[in-house]
Design goal:
By secondary structure, the protein is of the alpha+beta class. Helix content is 24%, strand content 22%. The model has no long low-confidence stretch (mean pLDDT 97).
Amino acid sequence: MRVRVDPLVCEANAVCVGLAPEVFDLDDEDVLRILAPDVPPEEQDRVRHAVRSCPKAALTLDE
């Protein structure tokens, strides 16, 4: 599984960071960084939940 962010859509609401902090982070300029684009198996359920919970639908999963 791989996760991507569309930087033109992301508003840095940090919902994903709260749900999967091992995979998502906001930098000092409020730009979303994906720490683990190739999602480890133990994080996949949380990342799926984070993608579904994104208020701007800025995250995409490739499974």
